[in-house]
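user: can you give me the structure for this one chain? tokens are fine.
assistant: on it. calling the predictor now.
[tool input]
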Amino acid sequence: MVRKDGFRGEECDPSTMRTDEDRKFVACLQVPGNESPDIFLLIINKAKGLHTITISAPASVQLEKTKVRVPEKDQKLTTL
């Protein structure tokens, strides 16, 4: 699937989407459904260069990872 902004693959649901002030990074939660019981975080890097993103959550949420590397103009889907 190709979206209007040029990214392939997954899309963010506007109700769970967050972005930085410059709109260079977009992140959203993808909640469990019929295909998977896992919760995923989709991170889209619209900026130039490879970036390491730090993920934080309330103490009640245990994260598998707290850092994710996202290449330039790419996206990462990570399990929470």
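assistant: here you go. Residues 55 and 66 are 5 Å apart (CA to CA). The first strand starts at residue 17 and ends at 19.
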